[in-house]
What we know:
Elements: H1 2-17, E1 32-38, H2 44-56, E2 63-69, H3 74-86, E3 91-94, H4 103-111, E4 116-120, E5 133-136, H5 139-153, E6 161-167, H6 173-188, E7 192-199, H7 204-217, E8 226-229, H8 232-244, E9 255-260, H9 263-270, E10 276-279, H10 285-296, E11 304-306, E12 311-312, H11 319-323
Parallel strand pairs: 1-2, 1-3, 3-4, 4-5, 5-11, 6-7, 6-8, 8-9, 9-10
Antiparallel strand pairs: 10-12
The structure holds alpha-L-arabinofuranose.
Amino acid sequence: MKKLLGVFALLCLLASCAPGRQPVEEEPPALTVIGVSQLGSESGFRVANSESIRSAFSEEAGYRLLFDDARQKQENQIAAIRKFIQQQVDCIVLMPLCVTGWDSVLQEAREAGIPVILVDRTIETEDESLYAAHVGSDFQWEGEQAAAWLEDAFQDAPGPVNILHIQGMLGSSAQLERSAALEEAVDRHESWTILAQLDGDFTQAKAYEETANWLDSQPGRPHIHALYCENDSSAFGAIQALEERGYTCGEEGVRVISFDATRQGLACCMEGRISLEVECNPLMGPLVEEVIRTLKEGGTPDKHYYTRERLFTPGTLSQDLIDRRPY
Ligand code: AHR
């Protein structure tokens, strides 16, 4: 049998080398071109999100990725989208910095016949057909989980509950929805007070500076029962400012709530300095790739895909879990 196959292969080779015949060279399949407008690299979450997108859209998987980092500026994102339109990409992936101001540029993409997928955050628009799908976290759910934990933790509190609130980048869907959940919970409890809302901008440096300045501007030493930080990076900055001024973060001191659950955040939680970590999963690349495949095959994806997320408290963590955390 082997001998027969060998003779057959030789005959095929001779036939393909016969005068007038060229060996057939197989064309590699054309790559699908994806333009990604990432909003920046402000946090551990964001770095992991970019990596997840880059590895899902590799050349081996059939993609050419044009990646633009907008460095926290909406005008840079709009310029990147316009460039992707000129380059006639097959699809645009947009992590929108803030919720408003997208309609015109998304209309331009639609007129060029290029579908847009929103990733991570959402936008506010009258015309939902401006984007094909959204893949990201349910920030409202995350905020509600944090508020429910606070209600539980302070249900027997005899006196007032003073909360210091470090907000994320103002006007982003992650900030708006996480802030709204806390504000609604505060409205439900007469004894709860938000001492201050500081702009942490989702970064460690800004949260540190704002918290330190606020603490130093207070006449006495404010009694803070809870610190609600809208991501890990800002929690690290605010905790540092508090600890430098003699506060203890943990069960016997300020109860800290944070979002993201990065490896570093979880380590801080296992130490007890963060009391609750609400996960915000950045590993969206495979899901985004699936949505784009559906579009390529002529299908209609769902409008929203939410990543599955969990809550962590010091008692639920182990070093092994933290070591295995991919981000
Ligand atoms: O949009 C998600 C948020 O953006 C993450 O919680 C935060 O870390 C990031 O910067």
